[in-house]
Design goal:
Number of domains: 2
Helix content: 40-55%
Distance between the termini: 38 Å
Radius of gyration: 28 Å
Mean pLDDT: 84
Largest sheet: 2 strands, antiparallel
Order of helices and strands: HHEEHEEEEH
Length: about 150
């Protein structure tokens, strides 16, 4: 039965404002988790990457994308990154603008019309970094959620 005109009855839920606040903050949790995981991958990839010149290690970074964050490697400073990550099949190297290739072997200058490159095995730097970071992610995401809940409640 409805009340008289002006008699308002309704349902009041105590603490609903906290629930609404918690649900809204969950939207930010996926972005925060993505950033956290990208940071773990970044740290592992830099640890695994070869240290010879340091250019590949310096090329590893995190960038923001619409759906979260991504870890990138290579670019202008280390254009060879894909060959290290995925390897290369055996192939022949020929000169492009000259009649011969020129390089040093044990301090001696050598000229050759072509070189048969034996190929390289994949180093799987990023793949290994993701695998390592996944192990650490479980511990870290629990802390992230706990921090979020403390802020909300």
């Amino acid at each position: 039965m409805l009340g008289r005109r002006g008699d308002s009855r309704g349902l009041r839920i105590e603490g609903a404002d906290k629930l609404v606040k918690a649900l809204r903050s969950l939207r930010g949790l996926s972005a925060e988790a993505s950033r956290f995981f990208a940071g773990l991958i970044l740290r592992e990839a830099r640890r695994i990457a070869p240290k010879k010149t340091g250019r590949l290690r310096e090329s590893i970074g995190v960038r923001r994308i619409r759906s979260g964050y991504e870890v990138v490697m290579g670019g202008g400073r280390a254009p060879y990154a894909a060959y290290l990550e995925f390897g290369a099949r055996p192939h022949v190297i020929r000169p492009r603008r000259a009649r011969a290739l020129r390089f040093e072997i044990r301090g001696e200058l050598v000229y050759a019309r072509y070189v048969e490159h034996p190929g390289t095995r994949p180093m799987r730097i990023m793949a290994r970094a993701v695998a390592e970071a996944s192990r650490d992610f479980d511990d870290g995401i629990g802390d992230l959620i706990s921090d979020l809940m403390r802020k909300i409640l």
